[in-house]
Amino acid sequence: MFRDVENFFRKWTGIIITCQLKTEEEHILNMVMDKDVSVSELKRNLKMDADKISRILRSLRWYQKGKKKFSLINENHDPKDARRRVVSITRQGMKILEIVSNEKEQKCKEFFGCLSEDEQKILFTLIKKCVNYS
What we know:
Structural class: alpha+beta
Helix content: 55-70%
CATH architecture: Orthogonal Bundle
Largest sheet: 3 strands, antiparallel
Number of domains: 1
Order of helices and strands: HHEHHEEEEHH
């Protein structure tokens, strides 16, 4: 639900709901959350060129928060095909993704807190319709 709201605000109002990750980084972490994904799949699904994907993967491999650096992803060669590289999420990546998700949920609650539950459902339905239409 929140992704639809975020996309709506970004596209139609220019408002970006900020968090600890850049949007592309978060998309990649979400994609590799449940299963390993090849770099070529990431490029195809996110419609990005190889250079951009490489930069994002590098930032996820060497993520810095304050003075600490840690890796949110692992990138390895596929054991079945050494030419193919696959990306997986680390425990630290899962933690960061959970923190980001909680932050966004909290911001959403704050922003839409003035609406009743029924009004929120109606609004989210309308936002989904707008996002799917465009």
